[in-house]
Amino acid sequence: MGINPKLNNKIHNEDCLKFLKKLPNNSIDLIVSSPPYNLGKEYEKRVALKKYLNSQKEVLTECYRVLNNTGSIFWQVGAYSENGILIPLDIPFFNILEELNMQPRNRIIWARQHGLHARNKFSCRHETILWFTKSDKYKFFLDQIRVPQKYQNKKSYSGDNKGKLSSNPDGKNPGDLWVFRNVKHNHEEQTIHPCQFPEDLIARIILSTTKKNDVVFDPYMGTGTVAVVAKEFDRIYLGTEIEKKYLKTAELRINNKHDKKKEFANLKNLREFVKKNKIKNYSDFKFQKQISKKPSLESKIYSEEHHKNALYERLLFEENCFSSDIKNMPRPEDPLKHNHGLFKRKKWIRRLLFNL
Ligand SMILES: C[S@@+](CC[C@H](N)C(=O)[O-])C[C@H]1O[C@@H](n2cnc3c(N)ncnc32)[C@H](O)[C@@H]1O
């Protein structure tokens, strides 16, 4: 028995566990989600960690039941912190998924350049995405998500393939280090939700593990990123969101519509609407998180490759600065030319190390 078609292509305003219990066994092809992290954000109540993990286990047990034999779960989590201690949530979640008899495929690191600055430990600059499958007959379509090779035109030196391209001309496997920019200020996809997925990150997951008309489920839809991407690539979407205000925004976003106040869910929707309808004077319209009176419709969209290079250059620069400081040598040039004047070596480090 499949899912009642009336439930499809909708986000349901109810508790995910209650909803999951209504779904038949083996009816979903992909579950991709980011649950609340029990941090006390605006959409969650903080509870004891054990209680939180027990309730997540209940949800994941149901997720496992409704998943097809060829299906996958992608569970995206960060860290839980309390009184200065930090628990990377993927560790307990890995155990929960293994106990359900699921098979681990990848632990993807989602690295970021920005975030809160910690005082008493290293600042968190990554979250994780656990990929588990229900069996070893899972779907994985690498050709759908290849990225450029570093040396695309490299040829074999010797052997039978001498002179032929040594790497796949369609590109390489993107790897398990992902650097999609998180959806914060100035991101064209940003809605009223504080913790949105970037659409491209979800596109990589959906394209690599599902086919057209497969069913994609997100129990914690927020403002509907998983639904937006599933719809774009002709997958059936299904999900739950408990907060009405996020659900309303998700519906505006999925249907690329504005509300009665002529507000769109985000800048991307506004831009697409204006282009599609060839509207010249768009100042009648707004989007929910709008700051400037008349935003630029030509917001820049950078590839993951761009963010990866920028992150790599930045980390290398920071480490080179540190190496120079402890060796009492001049710091290197900032490759991105940010804050030029501020990158002088700090005097206190010299004093500390060399008693100068
Ligand atoms: C981390 S956010 C997900 C954001 C989403 N990935 C996006 O791109 O917008 C978690 C969401 O789960 C919702 N939520 C929390 N408990 C829920 C429950 N029991 N059932 C359904 N939704 C719930 C919250 O309101 C919140 O919007």
User: What's the SSE pattern?
Assistant: EHEHEEEHEEEHEHEHEHEHH
Distance between the termini: 77 Å
In percent terms, what proportion of residues is strand? 15-25%
Q: Which molecules other than protein and nucleic acid are bound?
A: S-adenosylmethionine
Task: Let me know the average pLDDT.
Answer: 90
Strand order of the largest sheet: 1-10-9-2-3-7-6-8
Structure description:
By secondary structure, the protein is of the alpha/beta class. The protein has 2 domains: 5-139 and 176-255, Vaccinia Virus protein VP39 (Rossmann fold, 3-Layer(aba) Sandwich); 304-354, no CATH class. It is 29% helix and 17% strand. It has helices at residues 16-20, 49-66, 90-99, 199-209, 225-232, 244-255, 267-276, 304-326, 347-354; strands spanning 10-12, 28-33, 67-77, 79-82, 85-88, 103-111, 126-133, 177-178, 215-218, 236-240, 263-264, 286-287. An 8-stranded mixed sheet has the order 1-10-9-2-3-7-6-8, with helices on both faces. Strands 4-5 form a two-stranded antiparallel ribbon. Helix 2 (49-66) crosses helix 3 (90-99) and helix 4 crosses helix 5 (225-232). The mean pLDDT is 90. S-adenosylmethionine (SAM) binds at residues 15-16, 34, 36, 43-44, 193, 195-197, 219-220, 222-223, 225, 240-243, 246.
Q: What is the topology?
A:
Elements: E1 10-12, H1 16-20, E2 28-33, H2 49-66, E3 67-77, E4 79-82, E5 85-88, H3 90-99, E6 103-111, E7 126-133, E8 177-178, H4 199-209, E9 215-218, H5 225-232, E10 236-240, H6 244-255, E11 263-264, H7 267-276, E12 286-287, H8 304-326, H9 347-354
Parallel strand pairs: 1-10, 2-3, 2-9, 6-8, 9-10, 11-12
Antiparallel strand pairs: 3-7, 4-5, 6-7
The chain binds S-adenosylmethionine.
